[in-house]
Amino acid sequence: MTRKDYLQTISKSKKPFIIYKSEKGFDLYTNFSKKIILTKNNIHNFVNKIDKKSKNKKTDLYIGFFGYEILNNLIGVKLPRQKGHNFPKGIFYKPETIIGLKKELKYENTNFDNLNDKFKINISKKSYNKIFKKFKKKIKLGQTYQIKICTKYKNKSKIDPIDFFCRLAKTNLAPEAFLVKDRNFSIISCSPENLITKKGSNISTKPIAGTLKKTKRLNKYKALNFFNKNKKETKEHNMIVDMERSDLSKICETGTVKIFKEKIVEEYKDLYHYVSLIGGKLKEDISNLDIIKAMMPGGSVIGCPKISTLQLLNAQEKESRNIYTGSFGYIKFNGDMRFNIIIRSILNYKNFSEISVASGVVVDSNSNHEFNENYIKAKALMDLYK
Amino acid sequence: MIYIIDHKDSFTHNVIHQFAKFDHVECDNFDKINIKKIGKAKVIVFSPGPGAPKDYPLSSKIYKKFKGKKKIVGICLGFQQILYSEKAKIVEQSKIYHGFQSKIKVISNNSLFKKNKKFMVGSYHSLKLKEPFYAKNFEITMRCAISNVAMAVENNIDKIYGFQFHPESFLTKNGNLLIKKILST
User: What are the sequence ranges of the domains in chain A?
Assistant: First the structure.
């Protein structure tokens, strides 16, 4: 196989594989020697027992994802019985081959027709307004300060995930983008958000709160000005910064948690993000499982305070979030980790696609505005089906 | 030792790190109080948290038990918890400032802090103290410069200090100095 037509070849081979954004381009992980399907019972063992003996090879790692439910299980937050397709709560793979790919992905599939129905939303605008009002009341009572209601768009569809991913990467080269292609499912994601970067005893997280669509009149400086002047965006962001500082403080040495970048603007192809970078030095006796429990599910996509807000969300949501607001990434045998937050993603499972989106309810947010924001976020992915 | 009672908040570990700069800190959830540890503590801190003081009767009980015997500090919900235990009413406010940076002012001569001194602070409260409020030896010593809402209460006889704002927030300037002062008094 040559690198050039690697995507063509792997598509034909039907082998499961994963693509994850790297600094220079993408890394492709394949030839999986192990596949671990996570459950409430095996997750502790899995994370704690990741081999620490050999650690020099590039392939000495597990790559995969934690779904939303298992992350709740881990921190002891209860979930009621929800509707879903019994999609696995999490899966990790041990790759034997890693191949570096360039930023410009080349792939063409002329023999494949995407088949799909129209997307249907699981919460109507009317019910969304109702839920919104209910949560606003809870904010006034102090039970939550910010909460992210999830809505889901679904359809029946047969897709070529590589084609989807390549087209998505062309229009939106997100720093945490990934593709998982297995036998009966695929995940296509343009996640922009890094939740954990752990190297040795250093850890950092890079929450995003605030997104602005690019226009011709905007530039980075003007975008920063917009965010700084917009009280609602600023307050939401501040809350996330303090929450992430607190999550990191659970696992870091006293006095080491610092804000490295405070409320800066990052520019992407179609949008600007309002971003902070927070980090610290891990305490000596902290395990990777401790880190996962402290940081996941990522606060910026849940709301604040995390536990009470999760409880409110779980009492409200009738359908499983599956992968949405879970985390994808890898754990190396030497203990280093990288995880994102799974947002802006398609899950295609047994020929059903679902796209989940959420936006925040804070005291001064507007229901119609947030409902439309959600639609815009989902539309970027639904357009791939055209 | 400082004993922090956590009301399952997402800011509590910022509080822990802030207090740990000055003394050894132990922290437990409000529903898992360790009697031995709390007995050894010099200072008890009531953390911020969701909901209202009436949701945490156990914390009120602890407050009443140790009032006057140990130094007590309350932050946000903890501030309200102290006042609620002193028979104050805690009510909804019309304007809510979650994650808001605002200016507050020291308004009393009896404060540990200099009268008319202004601070930039971060706040996250939905509820506030209903006024007028009177309790023996308690005085409201700081107010929001804009809304006039009570932002700090001090009882220098029993050594009880409450802040409606968050000294541990990155939005609060000189938060460490504030804590240092109430711990060293």
Answer: 6-125+150-201+284-297+319-385, 207-278
Q: Out of A48-57, A270-279, B36-45, B107-116, which region has the weakest mean confidence (pLDDT)?
A: A48-57
The shortest CB-CB distance from B98 to any of A235, A245, A246 is to: A235
Residue in B7, B27, B86, B166 annotated catalytic: B166
Q: Is B76 a catalytic residue?
A: yes
Contact A305/B8, CB-based, under 8 Å?
Answer: yes
B42 CB within 8 Å of a chain A CB: no
Give tens-digit pLDDT for A237-285. 999 999 999 999 999 999 999 999 999 999 887 789 999 999 999 999 9
* Secondary structure of chain A as H, E, C letters: CCCCCHHHHHHHHCCCEEEEECCCCEEEEEEEEEEEECCCCCHHHHHHCCCCCCCCCCCCEEEEEECHHHHHHHCCCCCCCCECCCCCCEEEEEEEEEEEECCCCCCCCCCCCCEECCCEECCCHHHHHHHHHHHHHHHHCCCCCEEEEEEEEEEEEECCHHHHHHHHHHHCCCCCCEEEECCCEEEEECCCCEEEEEECCEEEECCEEEEEECCCCCCHHHHHHHHHHCHHHHHHHHHHHHHHHHHHHHHECCCCCEEEEEEEEEECCCEEEEEEEEEEEECCCCCHHHHHHHHCCCHHHCEECHHHHHHHHHHHCCECCCCCCCEEEEEECCCCEEEECCCCEEEEECCEEEEEEEEEECCCCCHHHHHHHHHHHHHHHHHHHC
List, in order of start, the domains of chain B with CATH numbers: 2-184 (3.40.50.880)
- Within the 118-147 window of chain B, which residues sit less than 8 Å (CB to CB) from chain A? 122, 124-127
The yes/no answer on whether domain A6-125+150-201+284-297+319-385 falls in CATH 3.60.120.10 is: yes
Q: Which of A237, A308, A363 sits opposite B8 (nearest CB)?
A: A308
Global confidence as pTM: 0.95
Exactly one of B76, B86, B144, B154 is catalytic; name it. Answer: B76
Average pLDDT over residues A67-75: 96
Distance from CA of A116 to the nearest CA of B (A): 42
The answer, for B176 touching chain A at a CB cutoff of 8 Å, is: no
